[in-house]
Design goal:
There is one protein chain. This protein is α+β, with helices and mostly antiparallel strands. Helices cover 54% and strands 17% of the residues. Strands 1-2-3-4-5 form a 5-stranded antiparallel β-sheet. A hairpin with a 2-residue loop joins strand 4 and strand 5. It is globular, with a radius of gyration of 17 Å. The relative contact order is 0.20.
Length: 200
Amino acid sequence: MRPRLALIGILVLLLCPGSGWTDSGSDPAVLVQETSERLLKVLRERRAQLQDEPGLIYELVEEIVLPHFDFTRMSRWVLGKYWRTATREQRRRFRQEFRTLLVKSYASSLLEFLDDEFRYQQPRLAKGAKKATVRTEVLRRGATPVRIEYRLFRGKDGWKAYDVLVEGVSLVANYRSSFAQEIRREGLDSLITRLAEHNS
């Protein structure tokens, strides 16, 4: 899997204030495209500042990403059966540390993708559909295009993303496999502690 591109996919999807993601009647493909284009415009304009102040990208992610991504759903899928047996406090701590991991691990890599072109495909949605997959391509200079798919769920707060697939490989499934192995060996509390130490 290409984890950097997967996280870039998430951040490109989400990092734009006032994007309209809470409008439950909106078209998910339009939301993805408009948000991506607005984000890229802002980051291109602030490229020099971000290179001089790399910590700024973390502040932007922290401030903007949370309302537009369903980390509870994602955390539940990542932990699988271990989510069902976890205490409320363990769920809260894992969700927080997993969110921080996604935000901080690759946020600075965004600058590597500012000059790439994104193409979007319109999904076919049945009336009243609760799930959607928005397919995009990242056209990189001198390289093979990369397929990125965004999976979204429409709840009471509108469309929110809960997974990103790069070349058909799920970010959620990738973490689920590695975390499950660690939980079997050391336990859930140990995993949460390791993530917290890594994030700090």
